[in-house]
Amino acid sequence: MSLSISVIIPVYNAEPFLRKAVESALQFKEVKEVILVEDKSPDNALLICEQLVSEDNRVQLLQHPNNENLGAGESRNLGLKHAKQEYIAFLDADDIYLPNRFEKEKELFKNLDVDGVYNAIGVHYYSEEAKVKFCNTFNHPYNLSENFLTTVNREINPKELFEALVRPKNSEGYFSLDGLTIRKSSLKKLKGGWFNDELRLHQDTEFIARLSFYLDLYTGEITKATALRGVHESNRITNNIDEKERNLFLKHNAIGCWAKSEESMDNDIQHYLINQKLYHETFQNKGFKLISTFIKNSFFSKGYVAKRKFKELLFPIYNKFR
Fold first, then answer.
1. CA distances (Å), 303 to each of 143, 201, 239, 293, in order?
2. What are phi and psi of 97, to 5 degrees?
3. What is the pLDDT of residues 202-215, one digit of tens each?
4. Among the four given CATH numbers 1.10.10.10, 3.60.21.10, 3.40.718.10, 3.90.550.10, the one describing domain 5-242
5. Which of 25, 62, 149, 267 qualifies as a FRET site for 276, CA 20 to 30 Å off?
6. Which SUPFAM superfamilies match (predicted)?
7. Range list for CATH 3.90.550.10 in the chain
């Protein structure tokens, strides 16, 4: 099957990596356009964008009105508005596609019931410092190798995928935007808009949750990487570690509010997501955070263990009397 794909790349502070990312997308004859959305980068990324546009007529450059910085979510939304091809794929400006990126799509999209296909992605560390920072941020063991995959670990029925992602029972895993391809016409099924522009981080997770609820997403290549996440010292998510709890609260708040409004959702899952929202909302409360911080600093060497145990103890009490 011949595919016609638009690849959307939000660009912010990615000067050292951007060219390699774009070239990794242009290697495919199926990629008919690469849409760069430059988000007021503080480095020379705009210059690299302009050079790439001049070198290949498949590359397009977009910017926000008044050259504002609006974040990755709104940048992807702008790219979606301008995408002309039948299929949509995403790539971060510091990541790359591997040569097998669209192999499963060629077969699966022959079935018109397939709204999207997701694949495994791997990781590439640009330095040891970046590896340490990444592992510390996500509480991964430091010996996490470059063979680590971001993927679901089994083939999942599309009708069961939403619950597997938002309420995993057996550590079934998750997937990334870099490994996702969507039939553009299927996006009209998505309620709640495209990417949530109020989320500066985790807007991809919130988007994928809603996609998996409204669309039929099929398992593609999950045994080996089809793209590589580039981990370096200036990654946004690892440099926002001090705001980690706040960003998690915003993500769970967005998902919980959407779940509360979605009447067709299974009641058990809906209540779970609403409670997740309340759980994180509770611990934005300054008093709880102060006590949690005290316990963390006083009794535990690993703060996330203290926080988790503390929350597990107090949240049911808070929820009972709120």
1. 20, 22, 18, 8
2. -85, 145
3. 889 999 999 999 99
4. 3.90.550.10
5. 149
6. Nucleotide-diphospho-sugar transferases
7. 5-242
